[in-house]
Amino acid sequence: MRPARAPHTRAPHTRTPRVPRPGRLAALLLSAVSALALAAPASPAAAAAPAPVPGTLAPYNVSSVYTAGISSGGYMATQLHVAYSGTISGSAAFASGPYHCAQNSLSTALNACMDTLQDLQSSRLERTTRDWSARGMVDPVSHLSGDPVYVFSGTNDATVKQPVATALADYYGRFGARVRYQRTTAAGHAWISPLGPNACAVTQTPFINDCGVDAERELLGHLLGPVEAPALVPSGTLIRFDQNGYAPGGSAAALSMGNEGFAYVPKSCADGAACTLMVALHGCKQGYAYQGFGTRFVENAYLNEYADTNAMIVLYPQAAPTATLENPNGCWNWWGYLGDAAYAHHGGKQIEAVMGMVRALRGTTEPPPAGGGSVTLPSVDAQDGYVKAAADGSGAAVGTLEDTYGFALGRGSDGKVNRTLLSFDTSRIPAGKEVTRAYLTVTRSSGSGDPWASPAGNRLLADVRTGCFGGCAVEAGDWAAPATAAGVAQLGPFGSGGTVSGDLSPAGLAALDRSGTTQLRLGFASAPAGTAYLFVNQAAPVTLTVEYR
After folding, report:
1. Which of 115, 139, 147, 157 is labelled catalytic?
2. pTM for the full model?
3. 157 carries an active-site annotation
4. Quick one: which of 49, 153, 376, 394 has the most CB atoms within 10 Å?
5. Which domains does the chain have, with CATH numbers?
């Protein structure tokens, strides 16, 4: 297998960024996000929610949808809002930064999205969002114009430093959102609530602080308009439901989500009144399944009290810890863990799981089909590679820089045009299932020039071969070998990070070898006129996700 390598990033400050060994990045990030203190936690406030009862997510008369979250949950709240701004009308984020800040990199997450050791690259994040919008990977960015956004950053927050939250406010301002930025409270890294058991300035479990202010009234007033005073004691129903039915593939644990989620439903909403839906997202070490944390966030977030008097359902999805260093503290996915390169846009596994819950509460979708699921197949390293030839296909040869740079696409400085070969063990698709969708996830490693613009409108296409183009090992003849189906999917321009291809065409789905190997060949439809290329997936395999029923 190709060894992983730390991504190269630019540091505009005089200090040298921390770039720990890749094997330690996850542990350091998760430790920093949770911001542990040695002091014992304060006594918890009285329970602010009724005991949960088993149930399901039934449809209600939902008039609008908003998101709110703290830390990793703040990042997820923003990801949901940007990815599905046609559905979600606004967002609130405590102690987090701009959309897609980490760009699939743990090093960037540590040094730019929590600390200030690296440039946040706000202009680049804006360009990525607009590009993804143009390609349909997120909803049209025009939906963000005029949306209310609430941003909170405490002056004592040393975990996600205030310039990072300032960049979130700036990010939304670039799209015309109505931003209210609260940055004068001397709070630590926490959700701010009158029910918080912690003093305002500390950073310690349960990361819910009382700062003598009603942040919920402030954020709800900005998102919804003037709100009624909260109920003294919540009188609605707290439903505990099974999250597995909303997880792509049917397993919440496989996405680092809990088996159980919660939804608070006031009586007025249960009786048919038009209600707002608030998706409230806990932070790291605040999930129900994390070391007995239970429903402390659900009880103390001070949203259920406002829900009763303001016709608002509150959905509390739950992330969960992994048994590995991928995500032991149960954070939401905002840097691309568990190999989910699509984590921030349409197709992101946690995003789609939460949106499935939203659709269920709105009554806009049917339950997942019985027996449906998906499998994500990594490409077979020993059978992957790239070939290069003159534009007319002459002089074909196997590329030799795979281990150093990744798979080449486009025209290199040697004048040769590169195509990439990828093998997948498609016998792993469950027998007896109908394949309904398949797509590739590809990550950019480096490049030069813009092969999509040379010539203008150039397309990066995938061909598929039932079995292998020649022998399954990469060979020179693979450059021009006939495909079973040509041009079955397209990958739009992407300047950094990962991207997801369009869905394979029906001919492409039919060509998948259900009993053995399927090969895909990536290449540009036209040879670039000059040097314009990219390398992809130097440190990890390309993946083929196949959905079935």
Report:
1. 157
2. 0.64
3. yes
4. 153
5. 49-362 (no CATH), 375-548 (2.60.120)
